[in-house]
Amino acid sequence: MSQNYTGSNSPLIATEPYNEFPPNKYVESVSNSHQIDESQKNGEIQPFFSNETTPTLSVADAIAQMLVDLGINYAFGVAGGAMAGLWGALSNSTIEVLNFRHEAGAAFAATEAYFASNRPSVVFTTAGPGITNALTGLFAARGEGAKVILLSACTSAPQRGRWAIQETSTYTLPSGGIFTPGALFNYAITIESAAQLPQIFRKLALALAQPEGFVAHLSIPTAVQTSLVQDVALPQLDVSHFGVTPSSEAIAKSVELLSSGPFAIWVGFGARDAAEEIRQLAEKTGAAVMSSPRGKGIFPEDHPQFIGVTGLGGHASVLTYMEQQPPLRTLVLGTRLGEPTSFWSSALVPRGGFIHVDIDPEVPGIAYPHAQTFGVRSDIKTFVQELLQRLPDAPDNFVLPLPRPENKAIEPALEVDYPVRPEVLMAAIQKIVVEGSDAIVMAECGNSFTWSTHLLQFTQANRYRVSTGVGAMGHAVTGVLGAALANNSKAVGIVGDGAMLMNNEISTAVKYKIPAIWIVLNDARYNMCHQGMKILGLKGADATLPPTNFAMIARGMGAEAVVVVRESDIEAALEQALASNVPFLVDVVIDGDRSAPSGGRNKSLAAQGVKSSPTQTPAKPVSFPLV
Fold first, then answer.
1. Which of 303, 314, 535, 537 is the most buried (most CB within 10 A)?
2. Angle at 288 between CA 403 and CA 244, to 5 degrees
3. Cβ-count burial of 78 within 10 angstroms (0-12 exposed, 13-18 middle, 19+ buried)?
């Protein structure tokens, strides 16, 4: 149980309970058992402890209580001597502390815990390699738009520059970018004194209440962690969700542009809070809808107005639509239109340009700098609600039959159904996992990403997760723990054998009884690299792996597992995994020679200067953009 560090004082932030607000809105949580007097409502400062008693609260304890009052439920990390005080304080608070096997895995899990719960999460590391190990996962958190706070230990001031164990200071690590705000951290600071806590608390509370992602780094020297808090008080903040509303001029201009001709809607992950409003807008106007890979499911993929996924693993039906029924303009909602979403293909630029809506004002126009773009800074939900009020209904006969994502029939299995064809595996996942459960599904980068994105279909938002910004191997392998934990239900990671060898947290899932499921596409290759080099006509590179029995590894760590070598056994294995009460791994031996739908990626690489050998002709790409 946590100590009541504030004594008889009220909590540090006064707001309505978190769960009374709409999903995906961030509001700090508060225990309902606390009462708020009038002086606190007026913003008076409340001390950590009574002035009549001797201070016994450490800086680490104060930070832990601060995080609790910011609505944080989970902390993921790897402990170490330099952060023992902080580790102890977290462990004795109401925050659930999960000790991982690698800091990058902890950061990936924290990222996915945020997306599964819409509550910020914490990563904790010790000094030196603890910090550097976590950086890839934190880089992904920033790129994905998560809300994550890194707590790290650093060397105390008297020991800096004296070759301390795992010394963490400007003598050993660059301060710019790690200990200061920049491309990696929205906010970063080293806490040298308890007197800094009120301002830090205010900055964190206000930043976490903003709609965009936020990744922070609090570095706490070992000696400071255990120092006592004296004469320090935190402000009583009344902080609720901050929306970004469009100007009346922006709405009027958008209505004017969209009313001047047929338009399409391009949906991205940033629009996930507005799924219902986007469906209403499409049906009201007859607009065709396409999505980014991360946006799968925001608009139902079985809807007759859905024309497909763009980008990596996407569908040629999108290009068919752009060629045969080109819109005048495209309304872009919550996607950066980066390479994984668009491959910057000119074929996707409508003749009238884009109306691009995003909470980040720097996003519109970046991907297509030469295309006409009307940028609107707004929360997607608010913007679409305004459009619904102002745009006229389309005529009853306006909607034309639209191209639909290709759905090729699977050829019958041979007499010996070994090894498993990836498309057969995906069909089974669709039936048993997607349609037969409510599990969150995550796909690892590589061929796992392209097969899943191309062949799986989702009809609701927040069930499918892929990383398109960083695309780090190991993200889904370890992130699946955070998703399952925060969602309090099954989460399934569709991963490659290379990623599973790189960074798995099976042992962690077993320790904390997290209902994670891994479906491993086992082909003894880094197969996206293997197939990509072949398609690009480049020889000599070796992307093969020694055959690995992942089921044996998983059972050795305490999980349940099964090996699938025949197509006829897939569905039973998936049903067994969903029924299990413990972490479960399905090791599927797949046919690595089946061409994955990643042709668009290869075309994009070629456009960036990756050329084939003069003596070879590259194979024809097999999917979007189909050329």
1. 314
2. 150
3. buried
Q: Which residues lie below 8 Å from residue 554, measured CB to CB, with a gap of 6+?
A: 506, 518, 560, 561, 583, 585, 587
Residues 329, 257 contacting (CB under 8 angstroms): yes
Q: Are 351 and 263 in contact (CB under 8 A)?
A: no
| DSSP per-residue letters across 2-32 | ---TTTTSPPSB----GGGSPTT-------T
pLDDT band at 406 (very low <50, low <70, confident <90, very high): confident
- For the chain, state the CA radius of gyration: 26
The residue assigned the tokens 């023992």 is 84
Please give the Cα distance from 148 to 142 (Å, whole number): 8
Strands of the sheet containing 491-496, edge to edge, are 464-465, 440-443, 491-496, 516-522, 584-589, 560-564
Cis peptide preceding 419, ω within 30 of 0: yes
Domains of the chain: 18-235 (3.40.50.970), 248-390 (3.40.50.1220), 422-607 (3.40.50.970)
Residue that the structure tokens 């791994």 belong to: 585
The CA distances from residue 239 to 114, 212, 253, 511, in Å, are 19, 16, 32, 36
pLDDT in tens, 114-148: 999 999 999 999 999 999 999 999 999 999 999 99
User: What is the predicted pLDDT for the residue at 54?
Assistant: 55
pTM over 0.90: no
- The residue whose two tokens read 């069909």 is 427
Tokens at residue 56, please?
């016994």
Answer left, alpha or beta for residue 374, where phi above 0 means left and psi between -120 and 50 means alpha: beta
β 263-267/329-333 pair status: parallel
Please choose, from the candidates 312, 386, 389, 177, the residue with its C-alpha nearest in 3D space to the C-alpha of residue 621. 312
SS (H, E, C) 218-235: EEEEHHHHHCECCCCEEE
Tell me if 543 sits within 8 A of 398, measured CB to CB: no
Question: Closest Cα partner for 92 from 125, 67, 128?
Answer: 67
Cβ atoms of residues 447 and 591 within 8 Å: no
